[in-house]
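Memo subject: From amino acid sequence to discrete backbone structure tokens
Action wanted: Derive the backbone structure tokens from the amino acid sequence.
How to read it: Take the token row as a discrete description of the fold.
Attached in line: The record itself begins immediately under this heading.
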Amino acid sequence: MQTLLQDLRYSLRMLAKNPGFTTVALLTLALGIGANTAIFSVVNSVLLRPLPYRQPEKLLLLAESRSQGDAAFQDSSYPDYGDWNRQQQSFESLAGYIGDGFTFAGSGEPEVLLGARVTANFFATLGIKPALGRDFVSGEDRPSGGAHVVILSHEFWQQRFGSNPGVIGQAIRLDGDSYSVIGVLPHDFEFAPTNSPPVWVPLSPPPDMATRRNLRWMHVIGRLKPGVPLTQALAEMQAINARLALAYPQENGAIHVVARTLREQIVGEVRPLLLVLLAAVGLVLLIACANVAHLLLARSAVRRREIAIRMALGAGRSALLKQFLTESLLLAFVGGALGLLSALWGVKLMVAAVPKPELEGMPYLGSVRTDPTVLAFAFLVAVTAGILFGLAPALEISRTDVNQSLKDESRGSAGSATSRLRDGLVVAEMAFALVLVLGAGLLLKSVNALLHQDPGFRADNLLTFQIDLPQSSYKDDPAAVAFEQRFSERLRSLPGVQGVATVSKLPLTGNGNTIRFVVEGRPTAQGHEDESNICTVTAGYFDVMKIPLTKGRLLAPTDKADAPQAILVNQAFAKRYFSGGDPVGKRVRFTFSASQPFREIIGVVGDENADQLGSVMLPILYTPFLQEPGSGFDYVVRAAGKPENLITPIRRALQDEDAALPMIEPQTMEQVIAQSRAVFLRRYPSYLISSFAALAVVLALVGLYGLISFSVAQRAREIGIRMTVGAQSRDVLRLVLGHAIRLALLGVVAGVAVALAAVHLISSLLFGVSPADPAVFAAVGVLFTGVALVASYVPARRATKVDPLVALRCE
């Protein structure tokens, strides 16, 4: 311990004696360790930290799909859920839930809350007990007669009720109805699949949703019994499903049960992104270590005489090795402490860059914190970094020849082995930096290709918002139709409005609803009918969205409830179900009810992307709003100028129409696209990796600049002799730049080789770009070589200014 304290005191004196070197080294390490710690903090919260439920590994999501693979829609029907509960033996319990919007009438203007409806055993299945009050009880979720009770999230309770425990028993108004508060959830409760809602009410489906077996709309979560493996539970569910298929061939004949863990459902798409970011930031740390190692090698070369004298006076090699490693670890720990502070700031920036819709679906990002796991990681990174960058100078010291060092010291030679090691470190820095730049280039090109995808409609000058009509005020379809027509007329009269329409599901926000159908005159096996996306739109929708009509006619105001049933289809529908032929005049019938009439296809319109940018255009059926009205829909408003300028006038018009209705999520269509999951999963890593790449390039070029500068200083005598015997300035410039160019080219070649071997790691994040895109590789290689040449030009130019007489006299 006494020896260690002596080494620490000596290391502190040496670091304080060289403030420039110490500052650069600490900043380099703080950036490298801080970036790694920030990314790991997110990885820890998302991938490593257990979900905040009892035995979360036993929680599964169950769904029904028409394919044996993973479910395209994580939904099940309520009757099937009831049969599962009665017949299964593998689960402690099965619970249902679904997200829903509520209009909350508080003290101010009405506000829409994205809440959830759950079965009475939902929280018990998760293993969660309310922190205040009680849970739902059996019977409060019975169909068409559930109790009007509500459980609040802890945050909502704090914000709206001032953490008042007396809230239990109070009444709040949701959708115009009174709900009694019975409980408050724990402060750390999160449930990402439903965006961690502020209010939870019993799932009490109306008769139609409770009895229609082919209407799949609810999510099911189950808790496995102790000792029951997933394979056994899934086999049992498939057996139950087979019995249901025999009993209900029309509804379940082509259905399969699929399952995934709750964690996989939450983080499935995010996991590859985070692992790529962790790998990228790891390269930054390696570059930082190489940079500091290079600095230490240069510093040890300057201290060769000191080291030789200490060894001549009896200092052992092991003592010197320990001294240098102590110095490097001290640097690492101080740099790690600074990095930990910068990581706290970095995490906030990372979370702030996540679009709101994505952040609502990943609430665990809001609770990223520096827990013992993160501290242990930062400590491990600091120790590893200290050993990595301290190893090179320590090994160089172990090879020191005392007599030769004392003789060579007057010449300032650092030795060819040390020079090769420094060259190798710079080549490694440049190679790793090139890998990051190539990754950033591929991702940026991918984002650009994605954003230039044609969604099938014109997204410019388009404002969108949602309206949700409460059943208490709009009790039937005629009331909803009357509201839509009155309010649309108000909007059309506003200055700057060129067109108004509604749609049941906004494009680029998910697949939406699907429906099974049969084509008249085409035999179809029972339960194996065709299936398509379905949207309900008002007559002006296609004009507002600028979706072209290719055949037939568009919907008209005359397509009312008492008119013949009419539908439009898109080109993808015609191609898939009519082999590209003309479907106009053909008739289809929805099969969810035997009483459904045949509907005539009156026209074909261009494809619009219902799912995400870059996804395949899906078949879509369009039904007229006047024939299939609903209580919740999206407005699309075409503006003459900036669409955001219409938000305030539209909000005032809505207040004039119905003061109890809020304008939900007003945003431009360009904002919808920018915040979509497809864009987020590519844009977010491209920005972060570009930032890491910029940092890596700066570190690599600083390393190259330092190497060339140090080389020029060490070779001053050689350069002086060359100039004395006739070398010109251009010869010296060529000599020094030649060394830099060789290192740059070696770094480029090595970086390209590493990138080609590792680029498959980001292939899942790319769109419209080959992982080995030659244009990106060529551009980055040329750019990197050119920038490296510019970085080394200054010290090379300085070498041409060496005065031979001064250089020789100093030697």
Remarks:
- Residues 104 and 433 are 52 Å apart (CA to CA).
